[in-house]
Amino acid sequence: MATFNNTDLAAYKDVWVYCEQRQGKLMPTDFELISEGRKLADELGVNLCGLLLGDNVEGLAKELGGYGADKVYVCNSPLMKDYTTDAYAKVICDAVNQLKPEVVLFGATNIGRDLAPRCAARLHTGLCADCTHLDVDVPNYVEFLRDVSTLDVDNIQWNMENRNLKMTRPAFGGHLMATIICPRFRPAMATVRPGVLKKAPVDQAKANACEVVMLDVALTDADIQTEVLEVIKASKKLVDLIGAEFVVSVGRGIAKDIEGGIKLARELAEELGGVVGGSRATIDSGWLSADHQVGQTGKTVRPKVYVALGISGAIQHKAGMQDSECIIAVNKNPDAPMFEIADYGIVGDLFKVTPLLIEAIRAAKAAK
Q1: Which pTM was predicted?
Q2: What domains can you pick out in the chain, each with its CATH number?
Q3: Which strands, in side-by-side order, build the sheet including 176-180?
Q4: What pLDDT tens digit does each residue of the chain (368 aa) get?
Q5: DSSP-derived secondary structure letter, 139
Q6: Residue 337 near residue 313, CB atoms below 8 Å
């Protein structure tokens, strides 16, 4: 990879999204990132470009245009049929070196978490990992701070010409939110937590208008230090919290009868056609596995209905579910913070209230 001056900020433009594909299928995080990237590109007044790597994957490119990409750069090579860090990092860095984007986004997936730091190190730029919010436009960022922070934003002197990407992520175990910028080098790079960004509706006209550009790939066997001999998929049943329309979560309130509380949550979730989640306390206590965790240090969800059983509503938990369409809270403590964001609040013992909810849902189904 040729050297370049990544401190010449004016030479860099456009927002890029690395679009992850596995076995010829785009990942859900791609659509979330393209949707968010569209907003950032509009704020910067530049193009939004997808970056798609693999073997014969150009057929996937137009779908990215439907979510807002102006252009998709496609890098094809038989050596990239299976993901390897060496191959993908080299091709991405070569493309960045050639075309000079000012922002590059990755999903905080297993591959994204592996690939993004390697690229950032080679490109001698910064990387903010596991972001939950992105902004460029300063007024938009100020409004975001007004809603989520205790800062007196009206008495701060803001630099309205600031074009730096403002990358917000949890810090100190989720006890506070930190916003990080990369003011001296380009591109600014970030990995973004899956599920925290809203996916835009598909626009077929935009998909048809999306430009697909095939990039030359300079990749040889000598560039790759590992060889994939076989891909074996392990079958493990995990909770799909991000894709669920109904989530029933339990908190420390089930402590007096842990098995009974989880059983009630599962029965209620089954009647709703949803899944069971949990607060960090339930995961740390070993009552539920980590794939059930909702919150800043867990998964961010936006279901149609979120039921919180015995969850007090710590700020870390609320940050992971407060954008749900409807929130129902059940708690014995009438002053529980969860009631502040709940659409419907029930003050009472979850072990008494939940069976009544289950019966009411069954009766409503039977009446149809």
Answers
A1: 0.74
A2: 9-223 (3.40.50.620), 246-367 (3.40.50.1220)
A3: 133-135, 166-171, 176-180
A4: 445 678 888 899 999 999 999 888 999 899 999 999 999 999 999 999 999 999 999 999 999 999 999 999 999 999 999 899 999 999 999 999 999 999 999 999 889 999 999 999 999 999 999 898 899 988 888 888 887 777 888 888 888 778 899 999 877 766 678 899 999 999 999 999 887 888 888 889 998 999 999 999 988 888 888 888 877 766 556 677 887 899 999 999 999 999 999 999 999 999 999 999 999 999 999 999 888 999 877 888 889 999 999 999 888 888 888 889 999 999 999 999 999 999 999 999 999 999 999 999 999 888 87
A5: H
A6: yes
